[in-house]
Design brief:
Length: about 230
């Protein structure tokens, strides 16, 4: 199991893991909007000083995306801010374009991780352009029955009486949705492993992981989040 330094430098590390490492080392004050928010340069410098290693650009992007989710409504405010946040959480850095589609698995995980970092308040809504974008990405894969975390963009399908063909379509849809749910479960397991490997958390790691597990279950099981 990798140690903290290995996690910081790994391209597999999650944004939420990096945020926890930063909060554990520097305190939550660096994530509060009191006029002393840390800049990317500050995070990069402090990581190098405290851990003796460089924070890779893509991982700095993940951390700053998590930072943005925690301190603003960037995920739901507008399509540009949503895309910057999602690509940041996924570790895409700045090497992406608006025309580049996001796979349903990646889209679902980014939204799930963002909701884990800062759960939305009841009644919060995504900007209509964000809903339309997510709906388009799902249509691109022929996905009409998305996992619960993307249910805010669900477009209810109306099926006529087309016999076996209709049954086949519904079966394929169920299989594709299950694939995405399996991927989300795998990502969650990897996240738990990363949290367990942060030795500085000590005995608090178990309680933290139980809390994260409960939060992720609520996100995954909620049919209509927003």
């Amino acid at each position: 199991m990798p140690g903290t330094v290995e996690l910081i430098q790994s391209d597999e590390v999650f944004a939420s893991t990096l945020m926890l490492i930063a909060a554990d080392k520097f305190g939550m004050d660096v994530f509060t909007d009191d006029g002393s928010l840390w800049t990317p340069e500050t995070f990069r410098r402090e990581f190098e000083v405290q851990f003796g290693c460089l924070l890779p650009d893509d991982n700095l992007g993940k951390l700053m995306a998590a930072f943005s989710v925690f301190t603003s409504d960037a995920l739901s405010r507008s399509l540009p801010s949503f895309l910057f946040t999602v690509h940041g959480l996924l570790g895409d850095g700045t090497d992406w374009c608006y025309a580049e589609p996001i796979d349903a698995e990646d889209l679902a995980w980014a939204v799930m991780e963002a909701m884990l970092i800062w759960p939305p308040e009841p009644g919060d809504l995504f900007d209509p352009q964000i809903v339309a974008y997510c709906r388009t990405m799902m249509k691109r894969e022929g996905l009409m029955s998305p996992p619960g975390v993307l249910s805010f963009a669900r477009e209810e399908a109306v099926y006529g009486d087309i016999g076996q063909l209709g049954d086949d379509i519904l079966s394929e849809q169920a299989d594709r949705t299950q694939e995405i749910n399996d991927y989300l479960e795998m990502q969650q397991m990897l996240l738990f492993q990363q949290l367990e490997s942060i030795k500085s958390l000590g005995c608090t790691a178990t309680a933290l992981i139980e809390s994260v597990q409960q939060e992720l279950r609520e996100i995954a099981d909620q049919d209509k989040w927003l």
